[in-house]
Amino acid sequence: MAFERVKLKFAFDALEPHIDAKTMEIHSEKHHQGYTDKLNTAVEDSEWADYSIEELLGMLEDLPDDIQTTVRNNGGGFANHNLFFSTLTPVSSDGPTGELKESIEDAFDSFEDFKEEFSKAAAGQFGSGWAFLALDEEGELYITAKPNQDSPLMDNHTPIMGIDVWEHAYYLNYQNKRADYIEAFWNVIDWEKIAENFEKAQA
Ligand code: MN3
C-alpha cells in the first residue's frame, strides 16, 4: 500500500498569527505531498513498499544504492512532516502534563530548561534541518538537531516532537528571523498528541 501523508486537522489559517495560511498550505499540500510522492515512486513495485517508514529509515544502509538517497531524503521528509503536522494545533495548552511532564523535568531539570535547549538546537541547526525531542534505545528523552530531512529514526530512535527549520517553513512570514518563528512555534504545539507519541514510544 502506498504511503499516505498526514493531513491537517484544521484550516490553513488556523495557526495564524503564529504560522500563516500560505505557508501552511504550500508546506502541507506541496512540500509534504512532494516528499510523499517521491518516496512512493522510489519503492513502488518493490519489496521495500511492504516496510513501514520507521523500518525503512532504520535500515537505510541495507537498501539498494539506487533508492537509498531518495528514501533518506524523501522518506525522511515524509516521516518528519507527518510528525510535525500531527503535533500542531490551533488550541495549544501551556505545556505537557502527567508522565511526559515528569519525564521532561527528569531529563532537562525543568520545562523552561527543556524549552530553552530545544529552541537553541533549532536555532543552531546550520541551513536546512530539524530539531527533535526523541527517545533513545534506553527510553531516555534527548534533544537533537539533524540536517536536511534526517531523522532520529535513522538511529533507530523515536522522535516524538519536531520543528522544521527549513526556510520553507517560515520564510513568508518571518524572512530571516528564524528565532521569532521558533518562539511562535511554542504557541501551536499539541501536547496531548506528543504525550500520545511518548506513550507509544515507550511501549
Ligand atoms: Mn518542511
What descriptors fit this protein?
single chain, 203 residues, mainly alpha, 3-stranded antiparallel β-sheet, globular
Give the SSE layout:
Layout: H1 21-43, H2 53-58, H3 65-86, H4 98-108, H5 111-124, E1 129-135, E2 141-147, E3 158-164, H6 171-174, H7 178-185, H8 191-202
Antiparallel strand pairs: 1-2, 1-3
Helix pairs in contact: 1-3, 4-5
What does this structure look like?
It is a single chain. The chain is mostly helical and 203 residues long. It is built from eight helices and three strands, in the order αααααβββααα. The chain has helices at residues 21-43, 53-58, 65-86, 98-108, 111-124, 171-174, 178-185, 191-202; strands spanning 129-135, 141-147, 158-164. It has a three-stranded antiparallel β-sheet with strand order 2-1-3. It has a single domain (20-203), classed as minor pseudopilin epsh fold (3-Layer(bab) Sandwich). The mean pLDDT is 97. Helix 1 runs antiparallel to helix 3 (65-86) and helix 4 packs across helix 5. Bound molecules: manganese (III) ion. Manganese (III) ion binds next to helix 1. Residues 3-88 form the Manganese/iron superoxide dismutase N-terminal domain. It catalyses: 2 superoxide + 2 H(+) = H2O2 + O2. Destroys radicals which are normally produced within the cells and which are toxic to biological systems. Belongs to the iron/manganese superoxide dismutase family.
